[in-house]
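Page 37, top half.
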Amino acid sequence: MPVAPGSRRRARPDLGVPPQLIVRQDTLSQGRGGNSEVVLVTGFEPFGGEASNPSWEICERLPREIAGMRVETCRVPCEFRRSIEVVAAAIERHRPLLVICVGQAGGRSKLGVERVAINVDDARMPDNAGSRPVDEAIAANGPPAYFATLPVKAMAVAMRAAGVPAEVSNSAGTYVCNHLMYGVLHYLAASGQRARAGFIHVPYSEEQVLDKRDTPGMALTSMVKGVEAAIAAAHEHPHDIQVSEGALD
């Protein structure tokens, strides 16, 4: 597990997803056309005292169709456990081909396509429901980590080709964003669904940094353009491209 030996950790038995949402492989072709050409894009509600969250504002500004896929969006509570439940229900409702979760990472200057989510919650502040897990496993019997099943390098390259600063990120943190990325990948593995999934972190919007000295921000129009390019690249590339996106630090 990703928690150091001897650390105090309250293991939780499951992801808190209602059992009725776990479906068998032989039911995936039923209802709404099975695993149809849909991309599910999720964004979070505001948290940490912010009045807005660019991840959800991006969702509201995306076109209805990208790369021939119908775009469905889902507003996610910034809460441990419940965030996974909400997105799992949206996955069951839409049966998407791709699931792309988007979250705010204040302080970053680029869009970050997350490579990996780790099986630990370690919150530096409470979520919107007042929960603040420390050194807790997300899934007690889950693997230490899940890698995104999206072509993260192809997505980052496509974002930059669209004129938007972007990179592959090797840490989704240990707050609700990492929690949701891990939970969605774990849920898809448990339910047998073939959807590919991952996570994109976005900076503060320009409006959010007006009163934040020396803090980077990005225009919402640029972030929308980058996410749209990433979605198109994810659809185009069933397997990732072989280019270096490794970080030195």
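Page 37, bottom half:
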Amino acid sequence: MPARCQGAPPDPSGSVRSPVSAKFVAGTRRPALPRSLKHPELHLVERIGWLRAAVLGANDGIVSTSSLIVGVAASAAGRPEVLIAGLAGLVAGAMSMAAGEYVSVSSQSDTENADLARERKELSDDPEAELAELAEIYVARGLEPGLAKEVAQALTRHDALGAHARDELGISQITTARPVQAALTSAATFAAGAALPMVVALIVPANAIITSVSAASLLFLAGLGAVGARAGGANPLKGALRVLFWSAAAIAATAGIGALFGTRVG
């Protein structure tokens, strides 16, 4: 029977549940690597948790607020009304993004925890079947059956739940759900993005709000798309163009609605 790691509770399957597994299941933080395993490589996938929320928040902040400003301005409203509408959109949007991200990512987290709880029970009830299942996964990935069984046995002795979470369920420290992080990132970046068209609307002449906010917002969005794509290791030009297309459509649509209903009201 393998030696038990100091301070680690036994896994229900009878194998050792390491401190790394405990941190993994709790989702508190990414475990530190031993000195011998540390290396200078920075993998882009490690950014996926905060990068998605940051890009989505900033992009939505610019698009929704600039569209709102342009739409209200197109209805022949004055600068105070335009700025009040933009500020209301900023606050409401930031809170909505935070709530939406928290709820959606919490749902992902609940699903992950439910799957982990079920896997923990299966390991306790039928460890042999779970071991065979893990070996089959490695065979499907290209290992010979004998080697796959040895690998499955070794990983089960080291951290049974962690092995099944990673290789059967696809849950890892990199992709695990972090609701609070996603909510705060989305709210902060939405507010930052929304502030950009607000500043433009504040400093340009009143009769130039529509063109200035539209042009500046598209410029900001192109830069955001390029930066987001580059941070994720993708083509910056492609990232900028796909953001520009949908953003221009949104701004044009709200400007048309504002002009149509503003004219009718007037």
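Margin note: The radius of gyration is 25 Å.
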